[in-house]
Amino acid sequence: MYSSTEIKQDSANITKSVCKIILSCSKSGLDTSLNQSGIHVSEDIVEKVLEKFENAGMLAHRFFEWAGKQRNYNHTVRAYHIMIESLAKIRQYEIVWDLVNCMNGKGMLNIETFCIIMRKYARAQKVDEAVYTFNIMKKYNVPPNLAAFNGLLSALCKSKNAPNLPKAREIFREMVDANCPPDIVTYGIMVDILCKAGRTDEAVQVVKEMEFDGCQPTSFIYSILLHTYGIENRIEDAINTFLQMEKDGVKPDVAVYNALITVFCKANKFQNAYRVVAEMDNKGVTPNSRTCNIIMNGLMHRGESDEAIKVFCKLSKICEPDADTYTMMIKLFCEREEFEMALKVWRYMKNKQFAPGMHTFSVLVNGFIKKHDLSSASVLMEEMIERGLRPGRHTFGKLRQLLLKEGRNDVLEFLHEKMNLLVKDPLYD
Predict the structure, then answer these.
(1) Where are PPR repeat segments found (predicted)?
(2) 418: domain range?
(3) What burial letters (b/e) apply to 350-361, b meaning 16+ CB within 10 Å?
């Protein structure tokens, strides 16, 4: 018999092997390489691999398609959800809805499926499509409930620009009319929407009304208020809110501490931010990658790159860096024109089985363009396209100008041919 530890180790090794194959194979040879590897996938392995490649949607989808054809394996709801989220990031909505229809045929659809799609549409400023997704749920025999209403409100809240407050109020009223009384989650989302819409004082009033009605605000709601006070440079209000939260018996979690750290970083009070990290340790709250990213980002904005590197080295021993952390480090070294160090971080990131996303590729490509290293920039651009990532117009436009200047029309034509297989939209104006 195998112990649970041995099974976990075996699963981790297989996941690592699959990731290496995906990273090293061309688009056309992936299925063959995976078949020849003799690897047998499980639900756990497929989910972990998809998570690793969440920023490389088309690459993840090719593996997803291959895994779905394997004997004695069926995709889980979670695998579908990871895949839908990954594809929606790169706006492959047609494939997203194909997956929804596939899940529907298998009786696997649930509220969360539609909530994911609503969030992604809202992030892409497609509010009408988010509302359409909510309205079409009934046709898929998934009747909207409180979680669905909260999902739509949350989607509106996650819009990159200021959220549509009138639309949010309309949905809130519709929710009450449909006999779905708002819960603590609803109130939290509405506080978030009001804060993002610049109605901070109104949001505070909502929190006071909650307390008056005997509904204790959560740490999430406090983290929203702290974050907003940081943006508005209301440091004293932020500190008072944090102290009031502790007084009310609400235990701060990592999100609350991160919000407080953001307040101090925006005010350039980094010693205070470090004290918060120390307090987290004393209270048994472990920092996460977001903690590291907030402090590093603040230091980089002040041009204190040496201090940012020290923070990375210290905090990466406590918490696992994420793709954003590595991207910031690569950008930092490119700006310092320390390209060997940038490549070292790039390789380390890949060794940790993180699939670089569009932003990470763009940072390094722009670094090589700045260095006038046409060969490295072109190779990276090709790899980016091979992974199903659409380059940003600005980055591709700069590389195009440099290629034309150097008379490398052949390379430009080659990259265009690659792109034509991926997208129809022009890459430059």
Answers:
(1) 110-144, 145-182, 183-217, 218-252, 253-287, 322-356, 357-391
(2) 357-429
(3) eeebbbbbbbbb
Tens digit of pLDDT for each residue in 150-200?
Answer: 888 888 887 766 677 888 888 888 888 888 888 888 889 999 999 988 899
Domain tally, the chain: 1
Q: Determine the Cα–Cα distance for residues 332 and 209; give it in Å rounded to an integer.
A: 45
317-359 confidence digits (pLDDT tens): 888 899 899 999 999 999 999 999 999 999 998 888 787 888 9
CA distance 11 to 281: 32
CA–CA separation, 206 and 193 (whole Å)? 12
Is this structure's pTM higher than 0.85? no
Token digits for 299?
A: 């230091």
CA distances (Å), origin 132, targets 52, 162, 279: 30, 20, 45
Question: Which among 247, 280, 284, 283 has a CA at the least distance from the CA of 261?
Answer: 280
Of the candidates 292, 302, 206, 215, the one whose C-alpha atom is nearest the C-alpha of residue 257 is: 292
> Looking at the domain assignment, is residue 396 inside a domain?
yes
259 lies in a domain?
no
